[in-house]
Amino acid sequence: MKLFIKILAGILLFFIILIIGLNIYFTDERLKSMIVPQINQALDREVQIDRMSMTFFRTFPRFGLQVNGFMLPDDEGEPVAEFDELTASVRIFPLLRDEISISRLNVINPNLFYKVFADSTTNIDFLLTEDIEEPEETERGYTIQIPRLDIHNAGIFYTDAVSESTIELTGLNADISLIFSDLIESTVDANLESFSANYGGTQYVTNLALSLQQQSVINMDDELLTLADGTFSIRGLALDISGTFGKWSSEAPEIDFQFHSTSDNFGELLRLAPSEYDEYLQGLESSGSLTFEGNISGILTEGEIPGFDITAEVTDGYLMNPDLQEPIRDINFSLIANNYQVSLNRFSATAAGNRLNASGLLERPFDEDASFSMNVVGDIDLETISQFYPIDQVGIEILTGLLAVDMDAAGNIQYPEEALFNGSLTLQNGVFKYIEVPRPIENIEADLQADQNRIIINKTSFRASDNRFSMSGSITEPLAEMPSFDIDADLDFDLETIKDFYPIDEDTLMLRGQLIADARLRGQADQFLRAIQESNIRFQNGYVAHRSLGAPLEEITFIAGSRNTRLTINESSFRTGDNNLSMTGTVDDFLDDDPVFDLTLDGSATLADVSTYYSLEPWINELSGFAVMNLNARGPAGDPKQINLNGSLRLNEVHASGDSLALPVSNLEGILSVQPDAMTLEHFFMHYGTSDFTLQGRLQNYLGFMQEHETAATMPAINGSYHSRLLNLDEMFDWDEEDEDPLHIELPNMTSTVTAQIDTLMIFGVPIYNIRGSGHTGPEQLVIDEASAVMFDGTANGRLVWAVPQPDYTNLQFIGELSELQVNAFFREFPILGENSRFEQHVTGGFSANVDYYTELDEYIDPVMSSTVAEGSFGMTRARLRGHPVQERLADWLGFNELRSMALDEWDAEFSIRESVLTLTNFRLTSDNIGIKLDGTQHLETDEIDFTAQLLLPSRFRSGIASVISSRAVDALTRDDGIIVVPIRITGTMGNPQISPRQSIIEDLLRDAGRDALRRLFDRN
Question: What pTM was estimated for this model as a whole?
Fold first, then answer.
């Protein structure tokens, strides 16, 4: 015994040492270096493996190989195949008999991904080689046995971008036995948790559970699969299958399968229903025999269907919902289908005394012109339906009435509109009640007779409380593409009671009012509304409240009638909050796309209520005031140019503010009257910020805004007046805001003649008072005539013409006069001597001028200096000139400080502007007994000056002048009255002038003076 224990211990020790040695030798790195290159070469791809190891205990009593984290990538690095773990155990001794016997192969979480891309390539193309060498035949091949292949939680995912289809199999668990030799023998026991299929965007199967148990033999040489024994289960419904499948590599594979399924409980058929119906089918009790059998035999080729013969029968079926009172019993049907016909020999069922029978036949089911025939007969007491069908689950509490149906039909599937049918449907003493309401719909009656030519509605009616509805008539050619009808209908509803028999959430919708209507409809289905031949509608004391409405619509009245194509609105009105509207009139062709109307509308509105019906934010945040309308509108709805309006609109106490308004609007009130040819603004006033506007006028031919015009005679024309006590443009516009976008000026296609009066205008911080004038506009110019204003403590008047020959290039002309303007303020705002002149910093006094000015304006409304042309004269009174650069340079040149600040007695000149050059002529300036005469030019863009001038200086300046041009020259320049006339030239720029004496004139005077001296000398002698 001790010896046996020693031997056993030695053997165990040997195995332990062997296992330790193998694990030490066959490390993860060594195994990968031995096996992975072989796999990569075989697959022409580098696979990814997390870990490899030898195992003994998991495959006891044999050694095995364990692989963890395997992934085979495609060209994009996405997985083609992957698994979490694979364990293989190989028998050693069968190898000596030329057999490869894997005793067990276990795979956990394997997934296969097969993708067909839009260009028809796939993600496994790299596995498919064009040249496959046939193995050389040997006298004897290996027999490979895998007694057990276990697959746990496998998934197969197929995506086809060409056909836009997907197939997903998840939760696959299988126990498979395989023997590979001359024949491939397999035994499979597999279960699939979910099978889903989508084709062309349509989901055909969702989460279908399947299972398979089968034994088969495959003869690869003869291309023959023999299914000896197989059971295929769909949601647990088992189907026994046997047969053969051969010649699969040919163009015409052969199939011969037989299947059979029987059950003592036909309710197993319900297992085939999609999973979303499980909650309805769960718990149903069923019985009755089921037989489902048949065979499929023939060849599989494109366009050819193999022969089949299928029979399905249910006998004495029974179906019971345990929550209901009555079962559906005596369920019997027999269906036989083959390549030539599908025949429903019988179908019958009984439930709570109700019986339904049906039969039918479909001949040549696979032909385009297959023909059908069917018959349905039923007598149903609707009150009993709740006993075998849960009507409460669809919101119905009470359903009663006697329903009888008897229908025969026959025809061609391709031309259903030509089918022949005949039948009737009657419903008597019907009652219908929703669960959530207190009262039912009662006295439901229906009596219909039909054939392929006509459906006759003898009567259809119901009552609900005191409400009633009825309809009768006929439908001709009901199966035609456009059937015609002739129907009379009438109703009488108290809308407040609708909630008693139809579920309405009063938190969402509330209705009141009496609606009485009747109509005669005759026409075709594609023009149902136009088929109204005659109707009358009376709706009074109406009330509609909905949470989408800020306030309810109350006191609704609508009384109207139609005859043929005319709708006559005798009375129509409603009130909501403090708003009300009424309307009367007629609408011809009221059901056409372009009706012609003649309507009178009267109403008043509180503008603050607008936001309760329609949000004006962010454009208008606050709106208040009142509007009153009295208006008649006549014309075609589809052509606004032909609509004639008569009436008035009155606005009072309107206030508005919001993002769309730079300033708030307040105290707006106005009266607008309108006639077919003109609109008259009888009165309009508002504040816009601190500015106020008062308008009156008349707009002729206002519909001309929607027309093209060749001459101004047909354009809209305005004649009116405008007045503002204060117009503050500085408040309306941000003059400092930089806008890089060009302005395109387009005057409207209209003419106008307007008088304007502005008591105070604020622009660029300058107040301008008592602006008066008149103007007129056309599509290409704006003209202001006889304009006058008080500005800079003086007056201005003249004529302005702004012409717009093209939107991005306009021109401006002004002809007028300025009188006694404060010169420093005027030149500060209007630097007509150039932007750099700063003339306003050196002068005070009154400025007057006569001006004829023209310039072109670019797309930014800036003057184009090269185009500017101007001429006129200007003068100053009570002026003082101090510190001007030319003045300072003269004082420095002559050494007389009193020239730095001079009170001017007179200053006048003539000027012109051509090609950016200002030319001064007849320039005269006097200060006491000092004066200057000047002529010359100033370039308004470069500021370069070139003036010739004469200084008129009293004799007290003699010594200072003599220091510059000599005493002899001073003598020559002195007039008889003692005034010294000094000729000078002023050049440089206005900011940096250069002054020099005109030597040629002085020299000429000296020569003349010398001749005079000699002449006097000789005269004395």
Answer: 0.57
